[in-house]
Amino acid sequence: MSKLNTSLNTNLNTNNDHFGLIFDKPSLEHWIFGQSPIAYEELQPDGNWENFLPTKELQSREGLESYACVVYTILNCCEILIKRKYGLDINFAERFLAKILETGENRGSSPQVACEMLRQFGVPPESVYPFDEAVRTTDVYFKELYPELYEIAKEFNEEWDFKHDFVPTNSQDITQALKTSPLMISVYAWTQNEKGLYYRPTGVNDTHATTLFYERQDDFRRVFDSYADISDSVIKDYDWNSMPIIVKRFWIEKKVIEEYSSIGSVLIAWIKKIIKWLTQ
What we know:
Elements: E1 60-61, E2 64-65, H1 69-86, H2 94-101, H3 103-106, H4 111-121, H5 138-141, H6 147-159, E3 160-166, H7 171-178, E4 183-187, E5 208-216, E6 220-224, E7 235-239, E8 247-254, H8 263-279
Antiparallel strand pairs: 1-2, 3-8, 4-5, 4-8, 5-6, 6-7
Helix pairs in contact: 4-6
């Protein structure tokens, strides 16, 4: 496998014209696809993850912009992998990690930092901390997290082993990595060319992170995105020649958890949690 492109730091976003992506500077400590300790687990030999896509979730709603594209992409990839490996439909709360990372104040986050925050703090289910019609302002979206929510989020770390690495930005490595995981790729959001494909114009940086789930060789890369409106779908085709500046791969596995000794103990544990929620 190729080495990570160490010229990445010359292409960093230094202005506010982006949608939540802050580029990582390369480091020798970063895990690289093909060299990292993450096992090569070829789950989709054709590189097509379409049958495992999650429900549409948007990072911006009614004028409220979370700048959390990196968080949405990471959790989308986790949800896709869990559905593919275990047949479980799980929806994680992007809003929780967005608050920890202060994506609104910082105008986004870097993929490396966001992944490590997920490993450190975990994430609760969307049902516990939703981005719904009740969340209408930035102050509400980014309000302080209550202590019980951190406890619920830790259950992610107790149940799942999550790892990530960078993928060298060339077609061969991206295609190979896509067989093992949906990928986070950076893109320029959103301009179309004469072929109707989205692309990065000459002389500009990528501005956005999104989920690569399929590609047609030498034509386009298809993404599941966190933006959509009447004329714009969450499924977008990105020109093959607009090579992403940053790519990340993910790996997740269910931990072996000791069985409870009885159904009663499970019920007691949940009753205690419900009492905490109601008290809060």
